[in-house]
Every structure is written in C-alpha cells, then in structure tokens.
Amino acid sequence: MHLDGIEGRVAVVTGGARGIGRRMVERFRDLGARTAALDLDPEPFEGVLEVEVDVRDEASVDAAFATVERELGAPELVVLNAGVLYKSPIEQHSLEEWRRVLDVNLTGPFLCARRVLGGMRAAGYGRLVIVGSSAGVNGAGAAPPPLPAYAASKAGAMALAKSIALEYAEHGVTANAIAPTLIDTGMLATLETDFRSAIPVGRYGRPDEVADLAVYLCSAHSGYITGEVVDINGGYLID
Asked: How confident is the model at residue 147 (pLDDT cuts 50, 70, 90)?
C-alpha cells in the first residue's frame, strides 16, 4: 500500500499496543511516518516510540504528548483509538463502570484532541481520526448485549469529531470518525455470540481493514473529507 502524505510526518495512535491500534501503528511505521504508540500498558515495537499514557488523566496525556514532541516532533497524524467495552443492562449498570467507560472513550479523546489541536492549527495542517462504533449510531442494536455506556460514549466521541471538524477546517486540519463493528479482535470475543450470520458480507472484519481506513483518512488523499463518520461493518448497519 502506498499513500501520499504519511512519510516523514509524526503519527500518534492511542491504544496502540494491541489489536486494531497495533495494526494502525504498524501501518504508519511501514509507510515511513515517525510513529508513537501510546497505551496504558505499552508493548515492544521495532522502530516505534512507545509511551505510557492514561487517557483519562490530563497530566498523563500532557506528559505523553510532551514525550512525543521531544522525541519525534509535533504530532500531525493522530488516531484516538483507546477504548473499553462494558456489557450490562442499564438497570444493573453501576455508576462506577458508567464513569470509567465515558472517561476512557469520551473524555480521553477530548483530552488528547485538545492537547494536539493547537500545534496543528499553528502548523496549518493536521489529521485527526477518532475511533467510534456503530453502537454510537444505533445503541448496539437488538442482537448484541446491552451496551448503554459504550454506545453513549461512542456517540459522543463521533460528535466530538464533527465539532472539531467545523472549528478547525479553516486551519488546514481535518477531523473524522470511523465506526467499526464486529471486527475480529479480543473485544469482539467478549460478546460470546457468533454474529457472522447477521453480516451481509458473511464474515467479521479484520483489524488490517480498519487500520487501512484510519491511515487513509490521515493521508494527503483525504484532504476534502472532514466531519464524517465512516462506517466499516460489512453491511451490518447501513444508515
């Protein structure tokens, strides 16, 4: 795969140690970006800056991005991928878990975006992608287990991307969200049900496919795309 506008730029992925995030990191690295993987529990990468971060904590976010700036330069291509899933009917949903999910999935993208957007505005260039979910569109639908906090957090994160897009378009910064569903990762395994029969293309998505979409939205080819929520779900949700 070749994409213009990646090589030599500083790329950052939160939740970059494993799963979809790890494939995003590898894609950026292999395309020649100076790449950082931010994660609560970093894992070794070849040719990648690994930085520990708790996206819920303002000081941790500031310190992590300061490390990126010191070691690689100002972030130009940023994918906010860190997220958690929690299943529970709303009547049994604890306030503690509600707050944890929203802190990671919504406050985390807010803190990270706020930290990098000033530098992008000053440079007159930037690409920001927030990883949402189709659960943020349809509340997770009738088939999956109840995901009230997850659905609410992802809806908010996708709306955040739209708001950023409107505010920063004049500064050469694009902001988009992607909405994966039923991707073959560890998070999917927690649902304990096989949903492949409900997917028109007849299979689960691959982490590589989500990574390719995110990296494309960070490339020079996507300069006229901003404020969008791009579905990637094999036809599971067509809206």
From this structure: very high
